[in-house]
Write a structure and sequence with these properties.
single chain; 171 residues; mainly beta; 15-stranded mixed β-sheet; 1 helix; 61% strand; globular
């Protein structure tokens, strides 16, 4: 049986591949590239970018000063960054909460009919791309940014629901 993987680094660029179990990583400085992981995936970084790819489960990533990138992940996502962009590309996401204070958000993933999706940035743009035949509720907030939606259904929904800088799309 595979055991959970946990580590703590001070300042080090790190690549971890082939994790078939739970992952817990904390780093003060240095970029992280994590491939794989199942179950609970918890990553914390103060001064380093985080890239997670091919993971499945409950994904919880917090990063203070750099970007967060998720590729081909599955499960529930909670991602927060203070000074960095958040990019979710591909995969099957059953629910997502993507929050950044001063960064852009790109969401190019699946939307589950029963999922909850919340995307928020204070000083950044939100770009959203999902399939045209989706039925879901997506909440979006930005204070000093724009919302860019790809797909005719999304674009029309945004035009109809624009009020202040909060958007609640029911597709």
């Amino acid at each position: 049986p595979l055991l959970p993987y946990a580590t703590l680094f001070r300042s080090l660029d790190c690549e971890m591949a082939g994790a078939g179990s739970e992952v817990a990583i904390r780093v003060l400085g240095g970029d992280l590239l994590v491939t794989g992981g199942r179950g609970r995936i918890k990553i914390r970084s103060v001064h380093g970018a985080v890239t997670l790819q091919g993971a499945t489960g409950e994904i919880d990533i917090r990063c203070a000063n750099e970007d967060i990138r998720l590729r081909d992940v599955e499960g529930t996502i909670l991602v927060e960054s203070v000074h960095g962009d958040i990019r979710l590309e591909g995969g099957h996401v059953s629910s997502a909460e993507l929050i950044t204070t001063s960064g852009d958000i790109l969401y190019d993933g699946s939307i589950d009919r029963d999922g909850d999706y919340f995307l928020a940035t204070h000083e950044g743009d939100i770009r959203l791309t999902i399939a045209p035949d989706i039925s879901a509720l997506v909440e979006i907030e930005t204070f000093e940014g724009d919302v860019i939606a790809h797909g005719a259904v999304l674009e029309q929904a945004l035009v109809e629901l624009r009020r202040d800088r909060d958007y609640r799309l029911e597709l």
